[in-house]
Amino acid sequence: MAGVCVQVSRRWWTVAVAAAVLVAGVIMPGPATAAPSGIAPPSPPSSVRSDDYPSDGTPSGGVGVPGTFEVTAPAVRPGKVKEYAYSLDSGVLIAAETVPARTSDRGSTISVSPTHDGVNVLRVWSRDHAGRISAPVTYTFTVRASSGPGDPVVPLPPAITFPNGSDVSAGGQLTVKFDAGG
After folding, report:
1. Banded pLDDT at 39 (limits 50, 70, 90)
2. Residues with Cβ < 8 Å from 2, sequence gap 6 or more?
3. CB-count burial class (<10 Å; 0-12, 13-18, 19+) for 80
4. Mean pLDDT of 69-82
5. What average pLDDT is seen over the chain?
6. 3-state secondary structure of 80
7. What is the Cα–Cα distance from 111 to 94, expressed in whole angstroms?
8. Which region, left, alpha or beta, applies to residue 181 given φ > 0 means left and ψ of -120 to 50 means alpha?
9. How far apart, in whole angstroms, are the C-alpha atoms of residue 126 and residue 42?
10. pLDDT given for residue 121 in this prediction
């Protein structure tokens, strides 16, 4: 593969050319790629992890139950990262939401509420100040099935308190009487 430098609009670009011929300043057909010389997209995040939705295959959380995902800045040039783009399951960058990188460590925190049970895939990209995007990092986790269609799995509080001030603590007993007459 040969490299050819050409100036386009006051910027030098390195064009990698395979099986191509340069004739009178024109590159004849052949596979080619171009990128500004010396300007590379940011590195992908070093990692993504979550205590709410671990990636160990164990079903966790539930449909509609938000989880926090911690994004670790790239190991290479972390200061170049402005924000992180992310998408859940679609994998489509154009539909991705963004969160800013922290100034302290250039990482970020993403909050996501899964829309279905079973296997979910979170994709995260680094984005620099010029808008260049890294390759994605994927984080796969499993969402626990809900007890009914569309019902989120939400833990009950340790005690239930009633308007009259009485309560039922965890492990206690509650008797409920219904009056059909109103």
Report:
1. confident
2. 16, 17, 18, 20
3. buried
4. 96
5. 76
6. helix
7. 19
8. alpha
9. 6
10. 97
